[in-house]
Amino acid sequence: MTWAAVVRPARPDERFAVLALCRDFHTASGIPFAFDPAHASRAAQDHIEDPRKLCLILEVNGALRGVLAASAAISPLAPVRIAQELVFWVDPAHRGRAPLRMVRAYEEWARAEGCAAAGLSGLNDPRVARFFGAAGFALTENKFLKILG
Q1: Are 58 and 65 in contact (CB under 8 A)?
Q2: How far apart are CA 82 and CA 90, in angstroms?
Q3: pTM greater than 0.90 (yes/no)
Q4: What is the structure's pLDDT at 14?
Q5: Strand, helix or coil for residue 3
């Protein structure tokens, strides 16, 4: 089957569709905290509406099937701007070439924002690590999480 896939910035009226994609990411990721729709909705709106942040979507035949949200900031360790992705999720049925187009659009945005580097994070999935490596990203650190309570 051939899909008409478009990568573009999300529009404000698509916030709830973006929120649904974020919920799908949260469910698949195994993040040990409950998904909070109100909190995530505010973050989605912020990334969609703030001109200094990014919210890309993958639209396939009129339906949203992927999201990549990011922001840029000065590094606390060096006087350089670094872009960092907050969420990157593509529906498993649409993980062909379109996710790479999303990453390339993210890189272009980061360059336009004056960033010296762009970061992506993955959740211990070797397929994600291979995809990021093939896109030119290198592993720089591992993060560990301990639930306090």
Answers
A1: yes
A2: 23
A3: yes
A4: 97
A5: coil
